[in-house]
Design brief:
alpha/beta, Aspartate Aminotransferase, domain 1, seven-stranded mixed sheet, 11 helices, 13 strands, 15% strand, binds pyridoxal-5'-phosphate
Length: 343
């Protein structure tokens, strides 16, 4: 079987079971991209035309795209400079009568501050959807990422901690959201040729799911290798007084999807030069994200944004270094020492 017309063949079902167990949730719904996961979750949580959704601008564009595709209006709020994640304080300031949902992102694989987000959501009767696209293996308050939101959206894109090539998954404890997501995934149908609601084709193929089930077995060893590489990188880079290194705390563990450091204030031009020089040494360093979403032409022209000084500053100062499981100890050493000598 290559795919199932009604959404879940045997391999998809197996992947969903494994992922639900990994995320410690009741339901997991596999789809064909992380963007599809976000779009369908936002739809399933009831975001409709004109509803406002509060999210960070310091993220991959798909987070905002999903809101717009569902008919919602993205309201960008600023980040906490220590974690690069949406600031709960800024979220609360952005709430209006039209706010329907909060959409924090676990940026670089470090969970957003979900307890205060949950409190704010409950106080103002808002839905909490989490963009956990980068967070496989991250924990918050001892629980896997996604545990504090109504629905968490994961990507299984090629670069992620585990992959199906292209793919995505939504996790939730809510039976109603689960049922709606399964409808949206396959044309709003429970039975063929009888759409109950607006849906689309967001089905994952059996081949992608087969890859995913094997990847699930490898996730903990992949994350352990990333963690080891990250620790080695930190040991090298802490020699530099020009850098701020990634933050982690005892009750909040990184998935180490990206190892992101920032250059200190006033040295922004050095960041860009460093990127160029590292590329000359064939080190694939990259600045995620040089253009925050609110500054992208489409979003600037269509959605007025408040000023986001911490977002703007971070976008000029951050850079990420390769620490994925294919990077050896010698290579981490070479990368870290290259950064130090170039700085
Ligand atoms: C934060 C974030 N959100 C959403 C996505 C979208 O996922 P996908 O590329 O699988 O559609 C990605 C990954 O690419 C991401 O990094």
């Amino acid at each position: 079987m290559l795919t199932s017309g009604l959404g879940a063949g045997p391999m998809v079902t197996e992947l969903e079971k494994k992922f639900a167990s990994f995320a410690s949730v009741k339901h997991s719904i596999a789809v064909n991209t992380g963007t599809a996961a976000l779009h369908s979750a936002i739809m399933a949580c009831g975001v409709k035309q004109g509803d406002e959704v509060i999210l960070p601008s310091f993220t991959f564009v798909a987070t905002a795209e999903a809101v717009v595709l569902a008919g919602g209006k993205p309201v960008f709020a600023d980040i906490d400079p220590k974690t690069y994640n949406l600031s709960p304080y800024e979220v609360e300031k952005s709430i209006t009568k039209k706010t329907k949902a909060i959409l924090p992102v676990d940026l670089y694989g470090f969970s957003a501050d979900m307890k205060p987000m949950r409190e704010i959501a409950e106080k103002h009767e808002l839905v909490l959807v989490e963009d956990a696209a980068q967070a496989h293996g991250a924990t918050y308050a001892g629980k896997p990422a996604g545990a504090f939101s109504d629905a968490a959206c994961w990507s299984l894109y090629a670069s992620k901690n585990i992959t199906t090539g292209e793919g995505g998954i939504v996790t939730t404890d809510d039976d109603q959201i689960d049922e709606t997501l399964r409808l949206i995934r396959t044309h709003g149908e429970k039975a063929k040729y009888s759409s109950l609601m607006l849906g689309t084709n967001y089905r994952m193929s059996e081949m992608q799911a087969a890859i995913g089930t094997v990847q699930m077995e490898k996730l903990s060893s992949f994350v352990a290798k990333r963690r080891q590489n990250a620790q080695q990188m930190t040991n090298l880079l802490k020699e530099s007084n020009k850098l701020v290194l990634p933050y982690e705390s005892n009750d909040q563990k990184h998935s180490w999807y990206l190892y992101t450091a920032r250059i200190k204030d006033g040295m922004e031009t050095e960041r860009n030069k460093l990127m160029e020089d590292l590329k000359k040494k064939e080190i694939c360093a990259e600045a995620y994200y040089v253009n925050p979403v609110h500054q992208m032409p489409f979003y600037r022209e269509n959605f007025k944004s408040a000023k986001l000084p911490e977002t703007d500053k971070a976008s000029q100062q951050v850079f990420s270094l390769p620490i994925h499981p294919g990077v050896s100890e010698e290579q981490v050493d070479f990368i870290g020492k290259s950064v130090l000598s170039l700085l």
